[in-house]
Specification:
The protein is α+β, with helices and mostly antiparallel strands. It has 10 helices and 16 strands. It folds into 3 domains: 55 residues, Winged helix-like DNA-binding domain superfamily/Winged helix DNA-binding domain (Arc Repressor Mutant, subunit A, Orthogonal Bundle), CATH 1.10.10; 208 residues, Bira Bifunctional Protein, Domain 2 (BirA Bifunctional Protein, domain 2, 2-Layer Sandwich); 48 residues, SH3 type barrels (Roll), CATH 2.30.30.100. The strands form 4 sheets. Strands 3-4-7-11-10-9-8 form a 7-stranded mixed sheet, with helices on both faces. Helix 4 packs across helix 9 and helix 7 packs across helix 10. The chain is globular and about 70 Å long. The N and C termini lie far apart (49 Å).
Length: 327
C-alpha cells in the first residue's frame, strides 16, 4: 500500500512549495497528518524544507520514474528490457531479483528502489543509501552459456558506468579494482555481481550498482562511522538527476552485455586500464587472514589484479580478496 509519506515525496518532487493546508486538502487528511508524513521523510534523510507561509518542498530530489527512465533509453537498449520497476523500499534490489524468475536469454529485468534498507557490497559489506539520495538499481540478465570472462563482468560494468557519467556533468572518475567507482580516492559507487548457474547451460546474473547522488549529513555520518570516505554527484558538481543517471547506467550496461558475451573483457580492457585508480600504487591484498603488500600493476587479460610483491608478480581473482591502497 502507498503510504502518505510516499505520496508526499512524489508530490513534492517538482521542487515547488506546497502548503500544509493545500496538501491536506489534496490528500483528504489533516494538516497534522501531513506534518507527521513530512517528518517521516526528514527522518529518512530526505532534504525537506519547511518555510512559514510557503509550506514544504523537496529540492534536488525527484522521485524515480520507471516509465520515464525507459523513455530516455536508446531504442536498442529499451527493446531488450521487458520489465522496469521502481520500489519504494527494499532490503536489496539484488536480493529481490535473485529471488525472482530469471529473464529469458537476451532480455533484461530492471529493478530500482527509492531506498535500500539492507544494501550489500562485496564480502557482505553494508551499502548506505538514504531515501532519495542515491541510485540503487539491479539488472537481471541471462547469458545463453557461460561467458569466458565472467569473473571480469564487474570491470565491464565499471567501464559502462564511467561512460554514463559525462552526460550528468561528471568526468575524471576512476575505477578501483574490482568493483568501485571513485573520485579523489573517495567512493562514489559500487558494483555487486551475483549469479545462479547450472553445471551446463544458461547463466543468470544480477548486476547491482549503487551510486551516491546527494547523501546528506545523516548518511555521510553513517559512512564515516564505518571507516569509509564517500563522495556524491552533488559534491562533484554534477546534475542531481537520478532518472537521467539511472537511464544512462542501464542503457550502457544493457547495450554492452551481448558484446561481453561474445568477446569477453577484451573490448573494454583499454578503457578500464585508463581509469585504473590503483595502478602503480602500493596496495595491501587481504585473503582470509593473510595480507600481502606490493605494487599494483594493473590487470591481466582475464581481469585478475596483478601485484608486484617481494616474491614476484602475483595474480589475484576478485572473489577471493580485498584490496586497499596504502597511503
Amino acid at each position: 500500500m502507498t503510504t502518505l509519506a510516499q505520496q508526499i515525496f512524489r508530490r513534492l518532487g517538482d521542487g515547488e512549495f506546497a502548503s500544509g493546508q493545500a496538501l491536506a486538502a489534496e490528500f483528504g487528511v489533516t494538516r497534522s497528518a501531513i506534518w507527521k508524513a513530512v517528518h517521516v521523510l526528514a527522518d529518512a534523510g530526505v532534504p525537506v524544507e519547511a518555510v512559514s507561509n510557503r509550506g514544504y518542498r523537496v529540492s534536488g530530489v525527484a522521485p524515480l520514474d520507471g516509465a520515464g527512465i525507459l523513455a530516455r533509453l536508446p531504442a536498442d537498449a529499451r527493446e531488450r528490457i521487458t520489465r522496469c520497476e521502481v520500489a519504494w523500499s527494499l532490503p536489496s534490489t539484488n536480493a529481490a531479483l535473485l529471488a525472482a524468475r530469471e529473464p529469458p536469454a537476451g532480455e533484461a529485468h530492471v529493478l530500482l528502489a527509492e531506498q535500500q534498507t539492507a544494501g550489500r557490497g562485496r564480502r557482505g559489506r553494508q551499502w548506505v543509501a538514504p531515501l532519495g539520495g542515491a541510485v540503487c538499481l539491479s539488472i537481471a540478465w541471462t547469458f545463453p552459456e557461460l561467458p569466458r570472462d565472467l569473473a571480469a563482468l564487474s570491470l565491464v560494468v565499471g567501464v559502462c558506468a564511467l561512460r554514463a557519467f559525462p552526460a550528468c556533468g561528471v568526468t575524471g572518475l576512476a575505477l578501483k579494482w574490482p568493483n568501485d567507482l571513485v573520485a579523489g580516492g573517495r567512493k562514489l559507487g559500487g558494483i555487486l555481481i551475483e549469479m545462479r548457474a547450472e553445471s551446463a547451460g544458461p547463466v543468470a546474473v544480477v548486476i547491482g550498482i549503487g551510486v551516491n547522488v546527494a547523501l546528506g549529513a545523516q548518511a555521510r555520518a553513517q559512512v564515516a562511522a564505518a571507516g569509509n570516505a564517500a563522495i556524491d554527484v552533488a559534491e562533484l558538481g554534477g546534475a542531481v538527476d537520478r532518472n537521467g543517471l539511472a537511464a544512462g547506467l542501464i542503457g550502457e550496461i544493457v547495450t554492452a552485455l551481448p558484446g561481453f558475451a561474445a568477446q569477453g573483457l577484451a573490448p573494454f580492457a583499454a578503457e578500464w586500464r585508463n581509469a585504473d585508480a590503483l595502478r602503480g600504487l602500493p596496495v595491501s591484498v587481504t585473503r582470509d587472514a593473510a595480507v600481502e603488500i606490493g605494487i599494483a600493476r594493473g590487470i591481466d587479460a582475464a581481469g585478475a589484479l596483478l601485484v608486484e610483491t617481494p616474491a614476484g608478480l602475483r595474480r589475484f581473482v576478485a572473489g577471493e580478496v580485498s584490496v586497499r591502497a596504502q597511503r
